[in-house]
TrEMBL record:
This is 8-oxo-dGTP diphosphatase. One of its GO terms (molecular function) is 8-oxo-7,8-dihydroguanosine triphosphate pyrophosphatase activity. Pfam families: NUDIX, TMP-TENI. PANTHER family: 8-OXO-DGTP DIPHOSPHATASE (PTHR47707), NUDIX HYDROLASE FAMILY PROTEIN (PTHR47707:SF1). Keywords: DNA damage, DNA repair, DNA replication, Hydrolase, Magnesium, Metal-binding, Mutator protein. It catalyses: 8-oxo-dGTP + H2O = 8-oxo-dGMP + diphosphate + H(+); 8-oxo-GTP + H2O = 8-oxo-GMP + diphosphate + H(+). InterPro entries: Aldolase_TIM, MutT-like, Nudix_hydrolase, NUDIX_hydrolase-like_dom_sf, NUDIX_hydrolase_CS, NUDIX_hydrolase_dom, ThiamineP_synth_sf, ThiamineP_synth_TenI. It is an enzyme of class 3 (hydrolase).
């Protein structure tokens, strides 16, 4: 495709989110002499000719803070238009590195707890990124129709109860679903977690939930993001994933990755298929289908934000 004089050139940029095991992440201030000097951002910089994104990130982290990146995984991509340039930001989460970060360019560093950003001013492009970092690595999907309500509610009273819960109970009548959802929300909100409801169900408006999760058929019919704090969708292909991004959703569930009892006879994506679909995503993507907690590291190596679990979340 040829570019005319009115087509802005997009600069390819990499950014690294240094992650600690507890989910905290690092921000750095922009040095003097650069646009938005003093603003906080994720370390990184422009991709040079002939570099892969991973090579560019490794070089930038070495130049900016003197560390050697040893393990990182692609996370998501965002395009942002500044007054001085348009940039395509390729975000990686950096899990392991050698050395201690040092401010080699006169910048400052700060570690942030998950879901927080206590430094300011923040670079404008990072608003959605900070929200995405508030999402835990494990997304628990209720299955009371398989395990019983008592097992679900009991798990939500344990010390390591899931921080993000999707109520998905297609077999319950609206009144019963409302009662169960309220019971789940009471427990999850008591320890500071979030609850989403599966399906845009008008009869259930006013329930104490934090957002809505749309199945693929409702995503296809959606023309505007639902007016709730958190919105996600189930997707099965690149087109559906792109649609969720265009509507400004907060995350997506992509699957099924492995064979499942709930989809007999259907071919799973496998990890190569999962990675191919999420390659250009603007959203954090959870891997779904036939997985358990032992698959979390593998999922993140293939670019997943984390894993979405049904039975495995309630054991």
């Amino acid at each position: 495709m040829s570019l005319d004089a009115n087509t802005p050139r997009i600069i390819e940029v990499v950014a690294g989110v240094l992650m600690r095991p507890d989910g905290s992440y690092m921000l750095g201030s922009r040095p003097e002499g650069k646009p938005y000097a003093g603003y906080w951002e994720f370390p990184g910089g422009k991709v040079e000719a002939g570099e892969s994104f991973e090579q560019a990130l490794a070089r930038e982290l070495d130049e900016e803070m003197g560390i050697r990146m040893s393990r990182a995984s692609f996370w998501l991509t965002r395009v942002h238009h500044y007054e001085h340039a348009s940039v395509r930001l390729h975000f990686f989460r950096v899990w392991d590195w050698q050395g201690e970060p040092r401010p080699l360019e006169g910048q400052r560093f700060a570690w942030m707890a998950p879901g927080t950003a206590s430094v300011e001013p923040m670079l404008p492009a990072n608003g959605p990124i900070l929200k995405a970092l508030a999402l835990p690595f494990v997304y628990a999907v209720t299955c009371a129709h398989l395990l019983g309500e008592a097992a679900i509610l009991r798990r939500l009273s344990e010390p390591d109860a899931p921080q993000l819960v999707l109520v998905r109970e297609p077999g319950l009548a609206p009144a019963e679903l409302a009662r169960f959802t309220a019971a789940v929300a009471e427990r999850v909100h008591d320890y500071g977690g979030r609850v989403l409801l599966h399906g845009d169900t008008p009869e259930l408006e006013g329930l104490p939930v934090d957002g809505v999760h749309l199945p693929a058929r409702q995503l296809a019919a959606c023309t505007v993001r639902p007016d709730v704090p958190w919105v996600g969708a189930s997707v099965h292909n690149a087109g559906e994933l792109a649609r969720a991004g265009e509507l400004g959703f907060d995350y997506a569930l992509l699957g099924h990755v492995q064979p499942t009892d709930s989809h007999p006879g259907q071919s799973p994506l496998g990890w190569e298929g999962f990675e191919a679909i999420r390659a250009a995503t603007t959203l954090p993507v959870y891997a779904l289908g036939g997985l358990n907690m032992r698959d979390l590291d593998l999922a993140q190596r293939h670019g997943a934000h984390g894993v979405a679990l049904m039975r495995g979340a309630w054991a």
